[in-house]
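Bug #2210: token dump truncated for DUF1579 domain-containing protein?
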Amino acid sequence: MQMNKVISATGIALALLFSTGFRGVEKAPGTLENKAIPKEKKALLNKIAGRWITQTNIHARNGQPASKVIGSDVWQWSPDGNFLLHIAYGIRDKNGFGGMEITGYNAKTGGFDSYNFNPDGSFSMGTLTIHNNTWIWNSENVRTTGVMDGDGKLLPVKHEITEDGKTYEVFMDGVLTKGSDF
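Reproduced locally. Full output below:
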């Protein structure tokens, strides 16, 4: 049942994005115009493109016991080469789940915007900052920080959550191991 929700949400998100040409609603106030991603920015994102195996520890929180997740993360370029598509699948307590992320270059800020589509049908928007080998994804309630090794094959990550936007608590940590490039 959960996988059907992921497949449905993924299909709807991709249909919406492809039908709008990844540009958003035309002439809507505040809509950012997508430009082709500059070579140096694409090179940064390209470091994560590929197939990864993920091993994650979820910390005990709010009365929920600690658990482990084994997963698969695939980052690949959209057909036009301007967006990085991230499809993630995992197994936790014998239950499968998945989600999707789309990352694109924001010409106004010079950074990256990240759109996350979650297994429960919700979505969030955030940013991705890459400085040297440090990757930081920020959204309203979640911050994920990873430091990629020099070979680009290991990405240890720490996921933190906040209720008030000021105080963060670690709720997951793990390691992504790159299996292959595209």
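Output looks complete on our side. DSSP finds two helices and ten strands in the chain. Marking as cannot-reproduce; reopen if the truncation happens again.
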